[in-house]
Design goal:
Blueprint: E1 2-5, E2 8-11, E3 16-19, E4 22-23, H1 28-40, E5 45-46, H2 47-54, H3 62-76, E6 86-89, E7 93-96, E8 101-102, E9 111-116, E10 119-122, E11 126-131, E12 138-139, E13 150-155, E14 158-163, E15 170-172, E16 175-176, E17 181-182, E18 188-191, E19 194-201
Parallel strand pairs: 11-12
Antiparallel strand pairs: 1-2, 1-8, 2-3, 3-4, 5-7, 6-7, 9-10, 9-19, 11-13, 13-14, 14-17, 15-16, 15-18, 18-19
Helix pairs in contact: 1-3
């Protein structure tokens, strides 16, 4: 899904949100909340429905949902009480009420991801922070990882990784990095005790012939 509303463009395939042509970085849960509200528009979704989608089988405070809604509103440039695009349905839940237009598909380009255990996170253009911070694009809740451990910067067809002064360091292919370093498809990154695999998916790459 790629749509436009106000001065924002939302792309669920590339996991990107732009406002005024500039990337807006949302916590993955906030991004998912915006996505499900856009998909269901203009129907209002109850808090129970949203909780089940965002935190299936888990109990979390209602304040968590309100915090995500506030993050989205800041990202799209809305003020709390005057918010009309992301509407609070008091005593019930939330709805997306803004005018939405289909946007042209983004031009095909390289797609970058980080994978570990059974998870995979798509990296956005620009800065992608790895760490325990709740706003990190690649959030890993592990005690051996610093709050803002490292960052990967995606620009065009390249990506570089840089340690952010973490306590336990950042390693690529077993070597500790002391300065920004370019990443290649398939390289292994270690942050704390967690090993991630950096992957590049290119539309220009041809299919190998089976022998």
């Amino acid at each position: 899904m790629r749509v436009r509303f106000d001065d924002c463009t939302f792309d669920s395939e590339t996991r990107e949100l732009f406002r005024g042509g500039k990337a807006v970085h949302l916590h993955p849960k906030a991004f998912r909340l915006l996505e499900v509200l856009l998909e269901s528009r203009p129907r209002a979704l109850s808090k129970a429905e949203l909780h089940e989608d965002l935190w299936p089988g888990s109990f979390v405070s209602e304040a968590n949902l309100a915090s995500l809604a506030a993050e989205i509103r800041r990202g799209i440039g809305e003020k709390g009480r005057g918010a009309r695009t992301l509407r609070t349905v008091y005593g019930f839940g939330y709805a997306f009420s803004g005018e939405v237009l289909e946007a042209e598909s983004a031009p095909a380009g390289d797609r970058f991801t980080l994978a570990w255990e059974e998870r995979e996170v798509a990296l956005s253009k620009g800065v992608n922070v790895i760490g325990r911070d709740r706003n990190a694009i690649v959030r890993i809740d592990d005690s051996t990882i610093s709050r803002r451990h490292a960052r990967i910067v995606v620009a065009g067809k390249s990506a570089t990784i840089e340690d952010l002064g973490s306590k336990n360091g950042t390693f690529v292919e077993g070597k500790r990095i002391e300065k920004p370093r370019a990443l290649a498809d398939g390289e292994r990154i270690q942050v704390g005790s967690i090993v991630l695999t950096f992957r590049v998916f290119s539309p220009e790459k041809s299919t190998d012939t089976r022998r």
